[in-house]
Specification:
heterodimer; A: 843 residues; alpha/beta; FAD/NAD(P)-binding domain; 26 helices; 39 strands; globular; B: 117 residues; mainly beta; Rieske Iron-sulfur Protein; four-stranded antiparallel beta sheet; 0% helix; nitrite reductase activity (chain A); NADP binding (chain A)
């Protein structure tokens, strides 16, 4: 081969692996810009569209469009000078002349040919497969045809209970079938991945979700005239269905290779060596069409690895394709299923630990080496949170903790079991889709300072495939930063060399009231979007003056800036306060009338109030004018402030109630409304121990007892939910309020910016015991001061929207165009949804 | 993203608003020749800036509502949607190099703000 001239590479197949090959080739060429390599790439694809994400094919039925699934738009190929022929499969290879000929007659020369023809659905020879209403589940075209046919079908079935079959069954449910059946020949579901016990549990879970599962069933015939009307099984039983998807396995697309005289396996697959060369060394095969190490690798990760192996060789490097781990984790119809290493190895070759909780729908199995030191494999169903950790422990042969069951049973009141991500060896593969090791990620964080998921995604491509490694990568970032001592002192930003708590004390002692005076006295530079909201928040927490006055408006965060929640598209949402969730019919009518008048989408919130979306900036003052006239006040849904105090009806109506929960909730909400804090504050009052108001998930929650109230604090929902902890029992109304006063003020004064009460408590040395000692026992002797401070804030409360409505200078800020105040932003657009409107999707 | 500004001889000064309409250390949006322009009164530095009002990340007309500030001395604005930050001098995105915005010349005369388009 002449190394001086351009190398011509032809890729046959534009599926996920074929695309990944192009992507990897380009990025490798880019990073070796100085080299003498010069390539010309031609790609032929059989399907009418460019490569798309086949792994997430079922999301097409959840509303994703075919374009959403594209791995790269057609323009990407153009921009990178790749000649792409779609709807044009290669029909012949002339190995002598080194050319390929396509269906449309294009003849292209190659120096290297890469076969990435993938696989087709295997359709078993059952009589009747040709009938209308019988489908395979492979391409977007298959999906489109199913979608069309499903409109006249009510009962659907899938033949095949493997991974793809269950995906297809989900598609049937998404298509709105009244009945969906799965028919599997083997005695268990997903026979390649999970064991009998796991299959039993998965079957139960799937049946609860409305799927009918038939095991050990062999189909003799597909019945019906022109269209399918049922399945006849070998055991004599019959099943009426009017739609069928066959997902009984895959068949490698090796016919092109076979006709070209390359070696293929009698049962399918283009035979390749360790370098992925076919019997013609100028021709490679990658992905599901290739038979490597005597097997077809039917997953995307090994396919990507194959692409990498070939790219490396074409760039002059050396790399072999090693037998690839077939571990997998996926969510099937909402049920987590994972299988890794050797899931089936049995005693006495290993020790097996099983955990099963049928009520919760969880099954876990791990297989441990006889000496108890290494993890060999396992299965997780219903809860696969530990998958990444276990997979790494398995692959890297990490030494297990003495109590190996901790690996699957998790933390039971103690230190973290086994080892976190930091204990993994450097070469541990964290992102298996993109083959990125712990060492590569650590290097990015330590040396290149990529300390957020977003920047790491950009620089390494980690988490961009299946996304399953994201939690692990987050832990890794934190672990590396901690190891570098980066969390030692939490200064606010480059403009303030103080922690929030330090700055709060300084601002208070110096009686500062505006951002600029604080910056002049204690900061440097011009400020930024980090310190401005922090200072704005602590000014509000200290003085409770209107946030938009005295030049404070431009330092407020996005929502506080216009006292409303900025939503997708540039409109705002409006939430009036409804204390305790109690509202009169008259006020409900006002909300309805206002929403109707200004064309707003309405929704009941989780906090027992009503949110109105889609308000133009310029309409906000008029909307509030009407709401205020009807007796409403700001709900501070836009602020890091007290949001709602939810309640159940308690003794006023409920036959179980022991205290008047609504009255107390109304009192508590009215006491703390407008109180700004490091993060939002939520509360609830329940009228008895049944806890209908869910008070234990709140920053402060109150639950009625026969004798008074139990007060719980520091509960949070959010990403990492945490139950509130008991602070005081059987206290009366006044004591309860007093304790909440102290608790809130202590939190406001000591928490870091944007830290909710649960993480605040978690970081507090001594935890709830210490918090109790401060708030209830007053060991610091500050209780009286805390009470006085919060009372001062409560005394100066006024509805900030009322102030805006009544103050022309404030009101005039609420316009989109400064030079055309009556004109609305013409770019705002809505879409229709269930008789209301919604924001237009991001472009 | 094309960041080049047209040659001076093709620029025209347009009256945008009164200087007192623009909050100190904040911004407003003006409609000029059908274009949405964000104007910032960086009072702390006694400087004025004008940029596109549209944030290129999600095509939202929002930059005038963003917080301004500095990063190592470079004046910037943060989009209120997802906090992408842009240099007020060059229009370059400081948090994600994929994006950029146009910047425009501004002058204040006799209490009136003019933008060159």
């Amino acid at each position: 081969m002449n190394t001086n001239k351009t190398k011509r590479i032809v890729v046959v197949g534009n599926g996920m692996v074929g695309y990944k090959f192009c992507e990897k080739l380009l990025s490798r060429i880019e990073s070796q810009a100085e080299s003498h390599f010069d390539y010309q790439v031609t790609v032929f694809g059989e399907e009418p569209r460019a490569a798309y994400d086949r792994v997430h094919l079922s999301s097409y039925f959840e509303g994703k469009s075919a374009d959403d699934l594209l791995l790269a738009p057609v323009s990407w190929y153009e921009e990178n000078a790749i000649s792409l022929y779609l709807s044009d499969p290669v029909v012949a290879i002339d190995r002598e002349a080194r050319t390929v000929r396509s269906h449309h007659g294009h003849v292209v020369d190659y120096d290297y040919l890469v076969l990435a023809t993938g696989s087709g659905a295997f359709v078993p020879p059952i009589s009747g497969v040709e009938k209308e209403g019988v489908f395979v589940y492979r391409t977007i075209e298959d999906l489109e045809m199913m979608d069309l046919y499903a409109k006249r079908a009510r009962k659907g079935a899938v033949i095949g209970g493997g991974l793809l079959g269950l995906e297809a069954a989900k598609a049937l449910l998404d298509l709105g079938m009244f009945e969906a059946h799965v028919v599997e020949f083997a005695p268990r579901l997903m026979p390649r991945q999970i064991d009998a016990a796991g299959s039993d549990l998965l079957k139960n879970q799937l049946e609860e979700l409305g799927l009918h599962v038939h095991l050990s069933k062999s189909t003799r015939e597909i019945t019906g005239e022109d269209c399918i009307d049922g399945l006849q099984f070998e055991d004599g039983e019959k099943l009426d269905v009017d739609m069928l998807v066959i997902s009984a396995g895959i068949r490698p697309r090796d016919e092109l290779a076979r006709h070209a005289g390359l070696e293929t396996h009698p049962r399918g697959g283009i035979v390749v060596n360790e370098r992925l060369q076919t019997t013609d060394p100028a021709i490679y095969a990658i992905g599901e069409c290739a038979l490597a190490h005597h097997m077809i690798y039917g997953l995307v990760a090994p396919g990507y690895e194959m692409a990498d192996v070939v790219v490396t060789q074409l760039m002059g490097g050396e790399k072999d394709f090693k037998p690839y781990d077939m571990s997998t984790k996926l969510k099937l119809i909402g049920v987590d299923v994972a299988s890794f290493g050797d899931p089936f190895i049995e005693e006495p070759a290993c020790r097996t630990i099983r955990y099963e909780n049928k009520a919760k729908g969880v099954y876990k199995r791990i297989n441990i080496s006889e000496d108890g030191k290494h993890l060999l494999g396992g299965i997780l169903i219903g809860d696969a949170e530990q998958y990444n950790m276990l997979l790494q422990a398995c692959k890297n042969k990490t030494i297990l903790p003495p109590d190996a069951e901790d690996l699957i049973l998790g933390l039971r009141g103690g230190e973290e079991a086994g080892a976190g991500v930091m204990s993994l060896p450097d070469e541990a593969l964290i992102c298996s889709c993109e083959a990125i090791t712990k060492q590569m990620l650590c290097h990015e964080v330590e040396v290149n300072g990529q300390t957020t998921i977003e920047t790491l995604k950009k620089s390494t491509k980690a988490c961009t495939g299946c996304g399953g490694c994201t939690p692990l990568v987050k832990d890794l970032i934190q672990g590396v930063m901690k190891a570098q001592g980066l969390y030692v002192r939490n200064i606010i930003c480059e403009h303030f060399d103080y922690s929030r708590q330090e700055l709060l004390d300084l601002v208070k002692m110096n009686d500062l009231r505006t951002y600029n005076t604080v910056l002049d006295k204690f900061g440097t530079g011009d400020g930024c979007e980090t310190c401005k909201p922090v200072v704005a928040s602590l000014l509000a927490s200290l003085w409770n003056e209107n946030v938009l006055e005295k030049g404070r408006a431009p330092v407020q965060d996005s929502n506080d800036r216009f006292l409303a929640n900025l939503q997708k598209g540039g409109t705002y949402s409006v939430v009036p306060r409804i204390p305790g969730g109690e509202i009169t019919p008259e006020k409900l009518i006002v909300i309805g009338a206002v929403a109707q008048k200004y064309g707003l989408y309405t929704k009941i919130t989780g906090g027992q109030r009503i949110d109105m979306f889609g308000a133009h900036l310029g309409d906000l003052p008029a909307i509030w004018e009407e709401l205020i006239a009807a007796g409403f006040e700001s709900g501070h849904a836009y602020g890091k402030a007290l949001r709602t105090v939810k309640s159940c009806v308690g003794t006023t109506w409920c036959r179980y109630g022991v205290q008047d929960a609504v009255s107390f909730a109304v009192r508590v909400e009215n006491r703390y409304k407008g109180l700004r804090s490091p993060h939002k504050l939520k509360s609830a009052v329940s009228g008895c121990t049944r806890e209908c108001a869910e008070a234990q998930s709140k920053d402060f929650g109150i639950i009625a007892t026969e004798k008074g109230w139990n007060l719980y604090v520091c509960g949070n929902g959010g990403t990492k939910p945490q139950h509130a902890q008991l602070l005081a029992t059987d206290v009366d109304d006044e004591t309860c309020i007093k304790l909440i006063d102290r608790f809130l003020m202590f939190y406001i004064k000591t928490a870091e910016p944007l830290m909710r009460t649960a993480p605040w408590l978690n970081k507090m040395e001594g935890g709830i015991t210490y918090l109790k000692a401060v708030v209830v026992g007053d060991v610091l002797g500050i209780a009286e001061e805390l009470e006085r401070e919060i009372q001062a804030l409560i005394n100066v409360y006024e509805c900030e929207w009322k102030k805006v409505v009544e103050t022309p200078e404030l009101r005039k800020q609420f316009t989109h165009f400064v030079n055309a105040p009556a004109k609305k932003d013409p770019t705002i657009a809505f879409e229709e949804l269930r008789g209301q409107k919604r924001a237009k999707e991001w472009a | 993203m094309n960041l080049t500004i047209e040659q001076n001889d093709t620029l025209t000064w347009h009256l945008a608003c009164q200087a007192s309409d623009v909050p100190e250390d904040g911004g407003v949006c003006a409609l000029i020749e059908g274009r949405q322009v964000a104007i910032f009164n960086f009072a702390r530095r006694v400087e004025w800036y004008a940029t596109d009002n549209e944030c290129p990340h999600r095509q939202q007309m929002a930059l005038s509502r963003g917080m301004i500030g500095s990063q190592g001395g470079e004046p910037k604005v943060a989009c209120p949607f997802h906090k992408k930050t842009f240099s007020l001098q060059t229009g370059k995105c400081l948090s994600d190099e994929e994006y950029g915005i146009n910047t425009y010349a501004v002058k204040v005369e006799n209490g009136l703000v003019y933008v060159a388009l």
